[in-house]
Amino acid sequence: MNDSPTAFSALSPGGSAHIGPLEKNAPFVVRLSGAWTLAGLPARARELRALEAELRRRAKDAKEWDLSAVQHLDSAGALLLWRVWGRRLPGALGVSEAQRHIFERVESLAAQAAPLPKPPRDPLAAVAFVGYLCLDVLRHLRDFVALIGQLLLDCLWLAAHPRQWPLKEFSATVYKSGALALPVTALVGCLIGVVISYLSSLQLRIFGADSFIVNILGISVIRELGPVLVAVLVAGRSGSAMTAQIGVMRVTEEIDALATMGISRSQRLVLPKVAALALTMPFLTLWCSSAALFGGMLAAYFQLGFSFDYFLHELPRAVPVANLWIGLGKGFVFGTLVALIACHFGLRVKPNTESLSACTTSSVVAAITTVILADAVFAIATRNIGLIKL
Fold first, then answer.
1. Is the pTM of this model over 0.85?
2. Which range is least confidently modeled, 29-38, 250-259, 308-317, 355-364?
3. According to a count of CB atoms within 10 Å of the terminal CB, is the N or C end of the chain lower?
């Protein structure tokens, strides 16, 4: 500098001291000393912020920075000073060659870490998103149809080789998805029957149509609620378990090991699950509907005074047997769809845990959505079957 300083300030990480007269408009030198390292800087965030604030206050009037008395300097101390200097080296800086190399390194790293400019907003981004979504749906449909075709080929092959049927896998899935699901389906069905019967009886009593509680409960449970409730419960309970099981085998490369040994993954993993769930779902539907009717009978007995004999005597008259076959048919279709979707998403799992969790969630959501769509198709296709026309 041309002008010799008439005042200076000494500052170290442990404290600061002003030396010399701080005259107005006088050249001001900030002299640092001590250890400006990660270990030497204050460990507490409050003290570190106070030190940085003090440095910024002095940087406003500083004409020169002198680091000749600094004993140790590392990237942590250099980064702190770099921020104080406004991310650039001051014009007058007294540093050693080693210290200058540290600051140059910090400067180069800061330039590399500079945020990239945001790309201009694409006006067709929404259209592209819809396109990607449609392509993803088409890929799922393609793989889903391919899976169904592969299962049909497996059934033809197993029909010619009946001893190769995977009976152990089939029976294990029947036990896990069917027998172990009986308590929860009975509990949910009974509670749903109680709720429907209780709420319906309150409204029917107003119009003096108490006897129609049998019609409402029978049609709604046997034809609609029974199959849908069981499908939702099985999708959340058994469908997610199937997806997770196949997904874990993908992560641990067990499916690749099966292919290496010449064992068909569709015959050993997919076909037993689809066949078992398609078989057990009608029985679970019948079981859940029976529990719902029993709960409805209890609510009708306590709310309307209808005896069990009256309820059981009027039920066949109010609900034609065609509704029972429709409900069982829905159970078969829903079980097949839930198992196919669960296996489809399980086979799409990539060898990482994040993909496993995402595919399991997608499996449950897709299965429940598909069940509701299939139920709507059933409602339209069977609108003239099993209903009493007055």
1. no
2. 29-38
3. C
